[in-house]
Amino acid sequence: MNDYDVLVIGGGAAGLSAALVLARAQRRVAVVDAGEPRNAPAQHMQGFLSRDGLPPAELLRLGRAEVSGYGADIVAGRVTDVRRAGDAAPGFEVALADGDVLGARRLLVATGLRDVLPDIPGVRERWGRDLLHCPYCHGHEVRSRPLGVIGGTPEAVAHAHLVRQWSDDVVVFPHTDTLTADDRERLLARAVGVVDGPVGRLVVHDDELSGVEMADGRVVPRAAVFVRPRLVPDNEVLVGLGCALDENGWVVADATGRTSVAGVWVAGNVANPRAQVITAAGEGSAAAIALNADLVDEDVAAALDAFRRTP
């Protein structure tokens, strides 16, 4: 069994950023990653200072190279079980799908979240291309074009008001929602159109979105459509360890990512559904600094105990 100071579960921006800080701090670090980044469908990553427009896969390639360059291990694999290594101090054994077991004094979980999309034909195929989620990530690229917002979640109307900032031609498709009179008045005040009724499918021509077809056959031309998916944290590891969750099922952590379970930290979308790539990277760095300080405290205590036992 390979033993590490910190085992990072999840090799996205949060996990790699944490591993970089820890490796530079002379810690023995490994990053276990299953190779399924949330933003894989996106062609470009926006809003990351000095990396604006970079393909997400390229950011991860550069990050892995930097982390490896400082001596950290990058392990391709899937975690199947995490358990305590003992009761004396925080310590963990992490089992992988291939049978390997890794030991670590501390854990940083950065496994992200899953986007549960509306069950509408065409949505999954266009996800990250012209069926979009984050206006801050993609709004500039589709600015001034005919845009749509598909409902089905409580935040859809607020999302439409946000998307309106990038275009003066925005249409809301409530889909399965029922808009209140106040919702409609607010949308009307900002010249946002409303097309009632369930959405049938997305219309695509020559591999480009061209419109939204309603269940009754009406087609509303649109160049891009936004949707608020249901966000589900990939927090099975944290739940299995007994980390406290809030009323919505998200792990409870302090500003550094420390959870309710000793020795376990979190960073990125697994705990913060609103974290963009640059935010997740910052959270990974902050968690790494807190983790290292915690390890230093443990190192000092062990050294002091050994010193006092010396004749």
From TrEMBL:
It catalyses: [thioredoxin]-dithiol + NADP(+) = [thioredoxin]-disulfide + NADPH + H(+). Keywords: Flavoprotein, Oxidoreductase. Residues 4-283 form the FAD/NAD(P)-binding domain. InterPro entries: FAD/NAD-bd_sf, FAD/NAD-binding_dom, Ferredoxin-NADP_redctase_2. One of its GO terms (molecular function) is thioredoxin-disulfide reductase (NADPH) activity. SUPFAM superfamilies: FAD/NAD(P)-binding domain. Transmembrane segments: none annotated. This is NAD(P)/FAD-dependent oxidoreductase. It comes from Nocardioides islandensis.
